[in-house]
Design goal:
Length: 536
């Protein structure tokens, strides 16, 4: 770790008195003694959030990006600090056009004039990691060429090492540091920032998103020109869209604003639940609106360097949490947090339920159209912190994306009722998840995993049936069909019962502690479910 960089960081932290951002309560005696001499330093004449923002900007691009990540964690930081971090700007002067051309020629093994019919010397945009130039291919397609800054990899690795040291010190010495899991947050950030250093990864992400929405009118992703793409050079189709925040142009072409806002929400839920692969950097600078079909508007997204996905378990728990919250079933929300491992297994569920109710009830007294979906989720996480909920790094990108999407939707159409769009999607996704065809597909795909976990199945089936409201309509329908007296129909629906029971067990696989409470009927129920499913 270079001494000079460490001294620079210490000097900036002292200049802006960032030590004052550490919690004053519960500081150990040794830490108070260590920080006591700092009281002699002059006090900056600015609020703490502005001090942190200015310090991060002075420390450079990696710290700016880390601050942008922290700005998506209002469940961890005070509102005034989050507000200032939202102002962080990732803008730096461009590097020279000649240097850029040299990097392109070295990567492609050919001169710029041989590859492109034209290449604009002045960049369209310049950021801390890369800059972008407009060009035209010899075949006539208009493209943009993204080129990594020279030497940026070494700078990033150096600063990442420093961030790891700082995170380790916070986790070890700061009260509540272990619960905040700063080392894991930095490690998650490392994966994110290193992904931006390999433009082939960004190209692959864009190709996957483009394939997911290839038949959809909701979202368009620019084409990647793989023949001209390397680790430090990316060539993409150039799009001609309206910036999503340019309300003047959107209104001038008579864009259907309510539908545009609703489609943004639908895109989010499709990415997270249907494809489990979502664009995690959907801030307004990366989003455009197609100029075609303004009454059926289509989004265009660029910069796919940062994407996210959830485990199947987190998908399920997140969907059920959202549904339970808006049904005001706070008991279910509390139990789901325990079952998912987001809070400790010994958390007092009754007390947790009461705390969630106290936070959510005032919010839900408002009309649904005025409720911030993302803020409800943040309030829930803030409440869970009081019950020692650890930071969940895998949910950081999701929360950031939801905040961006909802803020954008409300800017486009302030009357947006996000729940009106989200609720039917989540209900449909939950129904499809327990459909027998889906379950059979899961068995084919994850057969060995199912066999390994089969001894747990009877109890899991029993417990899931006790709790799952989603199964009730299907079971009622099955009962009506059985009453019809048609033998063939009986066995078809009995097999459907078996599929539903087996699926309920699969959804509950993460709850092995229930085996201790297993009644004999639970084993019989599980065996019967499997026989019914496999009956010829």
């Amino acid at each position: 770790m270079p001494l000079f960089r460490s001294v620079t960081i210490a000097r900036v932290c002292l200049r802006y008195r960032l030590d004052q951002l550490l919690p004053t309560e519960r500081r150990p005696l040794w830490l108070r003694g260590l920080l006591a001499p700092l009281k002699l330093l002059p006090q900056p004449k600015m609020e703490r959030g502005e001090r942190l923002r200015r310090a991060l900007e002075e420390l450079g691009p990696i710290f700016v990006k880390f601050g942008q990540l922290l700005s998506t964690r209002p469940d961890l930081l005070p509102p005034d600090v989050v507000e200032q971090l939202d102002y962080l700007q990732d803008k730096v002067p461009p590097f020279s056009s000649d240097q850029c051309r040299g990097l392109i020629e070295e990567a492609l093994g050919a001169s710029v004039d041989e590859v492109f019919a034209s290449f604009e010397r002045e960049p369209l945009a310049a950021a801390s990691v890369a800059q972008v130039h407009a060009a035209v291919l010899k075949s006539g397609e208009s493209v943009v060429v993204k080129v990594l800054r020279p030497g940026i990899g070494e700078v990033i690795q150096e600063d990442l090492r420093l961030l790891r040291v700082i995170a380790g010190a916070i986790e070890r010495f700061v009260p509540e540091g272990r619960r905040l899991r700063p080392v894991e947050v930095v490690e998650d950030y490392r994966h994110t920032i290193e992904g931006e250093l390999d433009l082939t990864r960004e190209a692959a992400n864009g190709t996957q998103l483009r394939r997911n929405f290839s038949q959809s009118p909701l979202l368009y992703i620019p084409q990647v020109y793989w023949d001209y793409t390397r680790e430090n050079v990316l060539v993409l189709e150039r799009i001609d869209g309206i910036p999503v925040t340019d309300m003047t142009q959107l209104r001038a072409q008579d864009t259907n604003m309510p539908l545009l806002a609703e489609r943004g929400v639908e895109i989010f839920f499709k990415q997270v639940f249907e494809y489990n692969f979502f664009h995690a950097d959907m801030h307004p600078g990366n989003i455009f609106v197609s100029r075609e079909h303004p009454q059926r508007p289509q989004y265009v997204a660029i910069d796919t360097a940062i994407v996210g996905s959830l485990s199947r378990e987190d998908q399920y728990y997140l969907a059920r949490n959202l549904l339970a919250m808006f049904r005001r079933d706070y008991r279910m929300v509390a139990e789901l947090h325990v079952q998912s491992g987001w809070v400790r297994a010994d958390t007092p569920v009754n007390a947790f339920e009461a705390a969630i109710r106290a936070v959510c009830e005032p919010i839900f007294e408002k009309p649904l159209g005025e409720i911030s979906f993302a803020r409800v989720l943040i309030s829930l996480f803030q409440t869970a912190r009081r019950f020692d909920m650890a930071v969940q790094p895998q949910l950081v990108l999701l929360q950031k994306t939801l905040l961006n999407i909802e803020g954008l939707g409300r800017q486009l159409y302030p009357e947006l009722d996000l729940w009106k769009t989200a609720h039917p999607f989540l209900e449909r996704w939950m129904r499809e998840r327990i459909h027998p065809k889906t379950l059979l597909g899961e068995i084919k795909r994850y057969g060995p995993e199912w066999l390994e976990k089969f001894p747990q199945m009877p109890q899991l089936v029993y417990s899931a049936l006790e709790q799952s409201r989603e199964l009730a309509p299907q079971l009622e329908s099955i009962g009506e069909k059985l009453a019809s007296g048609q033998r063939r129909g009986r066995w078809q629906y009995l097999r459907r019962v078996g599929g539903v029971l087996l699926g309920a067990g699969a959804l509950a696989i993460s709850r092995p502690q229930w085996l201790e409470q297993l009644p004999p009927s639970g084993w019989l129920l599980g065996i019967a479910a499997l026989l019914l499913l496999l009956w010829p």
